[in-house]
Amino acid sequence: MGATAASRAAMAVPRATALAVSTAAGAAAAGCWMTSTECLSANALQKPVRRVLIIVAMEQEVQPLVKRFGLPSLPQPFLAGSPMVAWGGRLPDRELELHIVWCGQDARYGNNNVGTAAAAVSTYAACAAFGAPDLVLSVGTAGGFRAHGAEIGDVYLSSKCVFHSRRIPGAAMGGELEESGFGHYRSPPLLGLARAAGLKRGAGVQTRPAAVAWACTRPVTGSRTHAL
User: Fold this and answer.
1) DSSP result, 132-167
2) What's the pLDDT score for residue 218?
C-alpha cells in the first residue's frame, strides 16, 4: 500500500472505530453483549447495561465519537484544574446513559495526555463524578500484526489486557509480584457483542487499557465495573 493510500486508511480508522463503538454500545444496551452460553457459564451479568463510560486518550480519537453520538459537552465535572474533558447524556434511540471522557491536553507540552497515569486518573475521576457505569470502554487506535490477521482499519475487542512494560522480578513471593506487574485483566466474555458489532477479538498488550481496567477495580466505583 502506498504512503498516500495508507494515510487515507489511517485517517479513516477513528471513523470506523466510532461506528463500531456505536454498534457495540447499542448491542450492550440491548442485552446482546454475551451469548446465552456465556451468560450461563459466567453468570457475570445480572442486569442490562444502562450506563456506559468511554475513555479516550487523543482528541483526534474522541471527536468522531462525539459527532457520532451527538452528545453535548458537560460543564467541568472534575476537580478544578483537571485536564479531562467530558461529554454525556442519554441516547434518545435507546435506554442508555453515555459519558465520553477525553484525557485532555498536557498543560506543559501541549500534547494529548496519553499513557497509563492519565488513563487511570481519568477513569477514576469519571466514575467518581458520574457514578459507577455498567461497562467501561477504553477506545483508541493501536498497532497490530498482519501475520496474526490484523489490517489497517480493523476494530478489535479485547479478551484481556496486560501491562507489557510493568516488569516486577518474580523471585519474591513465589512469583506473585510478577503476575501483579502484568495485571492480566480479563474482559468479560463478549463473544455475543463481538458478533453483533462485527469485531475481531484479541489480547490487548497496551498499557492504557490495563490502567483503565485497574481503575475499574477500585472502591470508588461502588461495585465491580466491567471494562474492556
Assistant:
1) --SEEEEE------GGGT--TT--EEEEEE--TT--
2) 64
What are the pLDDT digits (tens) for 147-193?
777 788 788 777 777 777 777 766 555 666 776 777 777 777 677 77
Closest CA to 13 of 151, 195, 158, 190: 151
How high is the pLDDT of residue 57? 93
pLDDT, residue 10, reads: 43
How far apart CA 103 and CA 111 sit, in angstroms, is 11
Distance (Å, whole) CA 34 – CA 134: 14
Which stretches of the chain score pLDDT less than 70?
A: 1-47, 169-176, 179, 189, 202-207, 218-228
Question: Can you give the pLDDT at residue 30?
Answer: 47
Long-range contacts of 177-186 (CB under 8 A, 24+ apart): 183/210, 183/213, 183/214, 184/160, 185/160, 185/161, 185/209, 185/210, 185/213, 185/214, 185/217, 185/227, 186/159, 186/160
CB burial of residue 170 (10 Å; 0-12, 13-18, 19+): middle
As a whole number of Å, the end-to-end CA separation of the chain is: 31
Q: Find cell 479478551 and name the residue.
A: 159
The CATH number, out of the four listed (2.70.130.10, 3.40.50.1110, 1.10.3720.10, 3.40.50.1580), of the domain defined by the range 3-140+150-227: 3.40.50.1580
